[in-house]
Design brief:
It is a single chain. Strand 6, helix 5 and strand 7 form a beta-alpha-beta unit. By secondary structure, this protein is α/β, with parallel strands linked by helices. It is 37% helix and 22% strand. The strands form 3 sheets. It has a 5-stranded mixed sheet. The protein is elongated. It has 2 domains: 124 residues, D-Maltodextrin-Binding Protein, domain 2 (3-Layer(aba) Sandwich), CATH 3.40.190; 103 residues, D-Maltodextrin-Binding Protein, domain 2. It has 10 helices and 10 strands. Helix 1 packs across helix 10.
Length: 246
């Protein structure tokens, strides 16, 4: 591959991954690189990284959410930096009283058993939060009370949450930090003592080892010092979502 060939930056097709990818791309461009960007589902983007169809992936949530996707190709990539520290939650809108619903187990008790909507609307099935949520429904016996998890699009999940806030409805949203809804609302995480949500991950920038020379030591060195943090990624995500709506 010619040294002047653009660096192919892949990100998972969710807006907050796009937000952090743009920060990585700015560093590459500052070092004189052209950038060819692409987005795909979780599984597909890791496949592309392994096949050499992209030079870097922004980003892998390790070890819990994306570890299974990285494992087959780990010897082909370098972990350059941790961009932020994501973690998954089951959250409720601020208007749901904490004394009424503090934990996942409380979903089976009154008043949640009367007021809480039974649909747990998620995003795509390849996301860690989707796997974790299906396990929560099973392990806590929520299905017996009519709760069910359904995967879908970002809009299915996020729009439903915002509608519930406007209408004062009681719902549970399977979510994560960072994410743009946290820049707009106070979302209270439910206690989940079985530890099925995977804990705190490291959002890791991955670069193929056969692309390192072309990217160059100076750019990789600057990227190794890039840390965005959860709050900033949520804010950047919110900005991108607003741009796309405008």
């Amino acid at each position: 591959m010619h040294p002047d060939t653009p660096i192919r930056v892949g990100h998972i097709a969710l807006s907050f991954h796009d937000a952090s990818a743009r920060q990585v791309e700015q560093v590459l461009e500052a070092h004189g690189h052209g950038v060819e960007r692409s987005a795909a589902s979780h599984e597909e983007m890791f496949r592309r990284l392994g096949a050499g169809d992209v030079d870097m992936l922004v980003s892998a949530w390790l070890p819990s959410s994306h570890g299974r996707y990285l494992a087959p190709i780990e010897d082909r990539v370098r972990k350059v930096t941790i961009l932020y520290e994501p973690y998954c939650i089951w959250g409720v809108p601020e208007h749901v009283p904490e004394e009424a619903v503090a934990s996942v187990a409380d979903l089976l008790k009154s008043p949640a058993s009367e007021r809480m909507e039974r649909l747990i609307q998620g995003i795509n099935p390849g996301a860690g939060i989707s796997r974790f949520s299906a396990a929560i429904v099973e392990r806590y016996g929520l299905a017996d009370a009519g709760y069910h998890f359904r995967s879908g699009t970002e809009a299915d999940c996020f729009d439903r949450f915002e509608d519930a806030v406007r209408e004062g409805r009681w719902i549970v949203v399977p979510l994560w930090h960072p994410q743009f809804l946290h820049a707009r609302y106070r979302i209270r995480a439910l206690e989940e003592p079985l530890g099925l949500l995977g804990g705190v991950d490291h959002a890791t920038l991955l670069v193929r080892r056969d692309a390192e020379e072309r990217i160059g030591g100076a750019a990789l060195d600057e990227l190794s010092r890039l840390h965005l943090g959860n709050v900033r990624v949520s804010e950047l995500d919110d900005k991108i979502v607003k741009e796309n709506v405008a």
